[in-house]
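Reviewer 2 asked us to include a model.

Predict the structure of this chain.
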Amino acid sequence: EQRISDAEYLSRVTEVMNSVVNRAGDDLPSTLKNQDVAKAFYGVVNEVFTRLSLSGNESKEVAAQAALQIDEIIRRNKVVDWIANLDAQNAMRNEIDDYLYELREESGIGLSLDDMDLIVENSIDIAKARYA
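Predicted model (structure tokens):
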């Protein structure tokens, strides 16, 4: 059952990533132009924001900045064979988590721990697919 669940989860993450990456820029903040992987992270963050009933240009800009920051964190922590290196992945998780806590405090966005975990894990999965 766990393998099926993991396969479905990965399928969903890949679907979200592809739907964001394959857009021609419709309704995406301009800061994400030419940032294909960050667009995928934006899709994950924006999906959570939408579920939290956050909308409008300001929340999209916050989501875009979060996506760019997540991309920077992952790039900074990539090492040779990082996909097999749990320490590197955990460093990414910890930094993304710290960033999301800061974002929650500074912006007042009501991110729950589950929301933050969802963003972190989906971001790592996207990074594995795109930065492998």
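The mean pLDDT is 87. DSSP finds five helices and no strands in the chain. We have added this to the supplementary material.
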